[in-house]
Amino acid sequence: SKGGDTCEYLLSSGRFLGEKVWQPHSCMMHKYKNSEAKNCLIDKQVVFIGDSRIRQLFYSFIKLINPQVKEEGNKHENIPFEDKSASIKVDFLWYPEVNGSMRQRIKSWTEGSVAKPHIIVAGAATWSIKIHNGSNEALTQYKINITSIAPLLEKLARSSDVYWVLQDPVYEDMLSESRKMITNEKIDAYNEAAVRILNSSSRNSKAKVKVFSVSKLIAQETMMKSTDGLHLPESSRDTNAMILMNVYCNKIIKPIDGSCCQPQPPLTLIQKLAFCFFTLSIIGYLIINLIHRNNYRKNKSCTDLESGEEKKPAISPPNVSTLEMLLHSFCKLGLIMTYFYLCDRANLFMKENKFYTHSSFFVPIVYIVVLGVFYTENTKETKVLNREQTDEWKGWMQLVILIYHISGASTFLPVYMHIRVLVAAYLFQTGYGHFSYFWIKGDFGVYRVCQVLFRLNFLVVVLCIVMDRPYQFYYFVPLVTVWFMIIYATLAIWPQIIQKKASGNCLWHFGLLLKLICLLTCIYFLSYSQGAFEKIFSFWPLSKCFELNGNVYEWWFRWKLDRYVVFHGMLFAFVYLALQKRQMISEGKGDPLFSNRVSNVILFISVVSFLTYSIWASSCKNKTECNELHPSVSVVQILAFVLIRNIPGYVRSVYSSFFAWFGKISLELFICQYHIWLAADTKGILVLIPGYPMFNVLVSTFIFVCVAHEISQITNDLAQIVVPKDNSTLLKRLLCIAGFFSGLLLFSAMQDQSRH
After folding, report:
1. Per its UniProt record, what InterPro entries does this chain match (predicted)?
2. Which of 119, 616, 656, 744 is the most buried (most CB within 10 A)?
């Protein structure tokens, strides 16, 4: 299943997903736009030589360059096509039989008197069957003619891409009387002859005529829709043209979602250094482990010579030193990162395109809901949005987002709009959680900030290095990080207003509200001033973090989509904590949050709001318009959910431990899915076990969840070491981290230099 073979697979095997989507075996096919096709074929000459079936393929191919082309002109003559803007020439040459005149034309290209085409697509046979009434002599003559053409094609294959298109089967019931002698049995005999004779003299050489046999498979599924039983329906021809484009262009354009025929990217300098670092960590860990084992064994076997009895070991098994813990963590991380690299950068495992059906999204959703409800337990505390409840919330949202990604449900607008609310709800929790912490604890120390930043960013920084991706590529982490810093700045800037201070004097509450209004004003200004926003994030080295494809537009778009929801989270926390302080809500076990009457009214309004939002989101027709409204209205459904989940006492005092378990590793799940569950940077699906889609998803999901859980453990262990509580030690570590990032920027600049 190596990437080099994906060209073979693309040309010879695959299956249909649904009616019209062709899935090559083991790799992903890119859908080429006109601009990309032109970019790839600039200054190229392409020749299609053969019969009416090759003419069909020619028309589908040039429509990828210029969709306005009409199929007109005499069918039994040469047809030229030229795109002057990109100086591309594509010609169809009418040679319906493999005979002397076709041989002469091909020979002229090998002699250098005529310009050699860059791509040659040839094929013919049905005319020979028809003219000679399907006689065996015609087949013998075909074999002789192909034998004389084969060496010429093989010679051309050294410098050009040469494809021999095998004959598609026919739909015999639909053939007209004059074509009845063209049977599938005859076609198979002609195809067999072509495959056997082509490349027979150049078995070992790399230059080969590529046999385009996938068209046969496509025709078997779709020939019933043919208009005359001989020619392919249009959608199948277009698929063949797209396959041809992928075979030739993927190595030139290198689209992320076109893994067929793409060579493995070379290792960058930073990747090589990371590889050395992880290798040394593994070796270091093994050495320390061996030394400890030896010492332990020596101490254990020291015997008391006088009494001849064994003494108790002088020391118990050694305490794990900081260095050993560090090496152990990096050792595990190194092995995990190797798996990441093999899954999504080395061409070791296969990748396939996503294909959305309603059942592929909704059936797993029902399944996890049943599991979640099955594992319900009582919460330790019954406060609003207590720890277990927020973990549960993160958990089920994360699982729904994962199912959304693997099923390709983003193409279905109502689902897309609801998933947008889930992403917003994550940010709502960010606002709520961090505001509550700072407001109650009043701890604005460097230690707290560093702990949060480390836990959020550690995995992403490692992945940027190992997978050679920009920081902004994992857009959610930059988003949460920036919002955390905004919350911190809002509350830490003078005057620092915290609950302790405010409970003495009501004016402080107004002071805090003023701060929040200032924050809202800044958000509003930046969301309507793209220029100002881009200026802030285009400063070096900030630009290094927030640029994607050379500009910060993508970052502005992502930030703008959920710009108000963190503010809503902070405001909710402020109101809730103020009510709690004044004992205006009851949070006892089994008690409704307010008096029965008020609770019922609020509950009714919440349910209506929740459903109203869902109806609006489901009736959405235009993605852009709905995205414009989303930042202002997403809070309706989030607040409705929080109230429905917390007002009734019984509902507040139970939670799903199944969802909460996933909630604890939700960040790791979100980031890891990019490379070891999905593939090609989320555009496709990772295939560990080809041919068994359901079994493959089960196996890759199991590994993916285990890896995410392990990374969560590693991050927690390293956070203790890298971010210590002692301020002077912390300062030293911060200087080391600053040095590390300076080195990273330097190497990154060197890499960019060498790339250009």
Report:
1. Cas1_AcylTrans_dom, NXPE4_C
2. 656
The model's pLDDT over 597-606, given as tens digits with 9 standing for 90+, comes to 999 999 999 9
> What does the alpha-carbon distance between residue 573 and residue 437 come to, in Å, rounded to a whole number?
10
Q: Which residues contact 38 (CB under 8 A, 6 or more apart)?
A: 65, 83, 85, 86, 88
Is residue 231 part of the annotated active site? The answer reads yes
Reported as a single tens digit per residue, the pLDDT across 317-337 is: 445 688 999 999 999 999 999
The single residue of 35, 108, 201, 228 carrying the catalytic annotation is 228
**How does pLDDT run across 223-279, given as a tens digit for each residue?**
999 999 999 999 999 999 999 999 999 999 999 888 898 888 889 999 999 999 999
Domain ranges of the chain: 6-253, 349-723, 727-755
Q: Considering the chain, what percentage of its residues have pLDDT values greater than 70?
A: 96
* Among the listed residues 173, 175, 92, 174, the one whose alpha carbon sits nearest the alpha carbon of residue 129: 175
Instruction: Give residue-wise pLDDT tens across range 93-118.
Output: 999 999 999 999 999 999 877 789 99
Section 43-60 average pLDDT: 96
Cβ-contact 168, 215 below 8 angstroms: yes
Instruction: Compute the half-sphere exposure of residue 289: CA atoms within 13 Å on the CB side of its CA.
Output: 11
405 included as an active-site residue: no
Structural contact between residues 512 and 502, judged by C-beta atoms closer than 8 angstroms: yes
What does the pLDDT read at residue 512?
A: 93
Q: Which CATH number fits domain 6-253: 3.50.30.80, 3.40.50.1110, 3.40.50.300, 3.20.20.140?
A: 3.40.50.1110
372 contacts: CB under 8 Å, gap ≥ 6: 396, 656, 658, 659
Q: Is 568 annotated as catalytic?
A: no
Q: Are the C-beta atoms of residues 351 and 28 closer than 8 Å to each other? A: yes
Angle at 688 between CA 667 and CA 286, to 5 degrees: 70
Q: How far is CA 592 from the centre of its chain?
A: 43
SS (H, E, C) 44-71: CEEEEEECHHHHHHHHHHHHHHCCCCCC
Q: For the stretch 292-307, what's the b/e string if a residue is b when 16 or more beta carbons lie within 10 angstroms of its beta carbon? A: eeeeeeebeeeeeeee
Tokens (6 digits) for 115: 């310009």
Q: What is the pLDDT of residues 608-661, one digit of tens each?
A: 999 999 999 999 899 999 999 999 999 999 999 999 999 999 999 999 999 999
Q: How far apart are CA 312 and CA 188, in angstroms?
A: 82
In Å, how far are 390, 403, 417, 519, 619 from 429, measured between CA atoms? 8, 21, 19, 18, 27
Q: From the candidates 12, 13, 52, 148, give the one annotated as an active-site residue.
A: 52
**57: how many CB neighbours lie within 10 A of its CB?**
24
| CB 683 within 8 Å of CB 257 | yes
Selected catalytic residue, list 26, 168, 202, 231: 231
Among 482, 484, 487, 476, smallest CA distance to 668 is for 476
Is residue 513 over pLDDT 90?
Answer: yes
**Residues 486-503: tens digit of each pLDDT:** 999 999 998 899 998 888
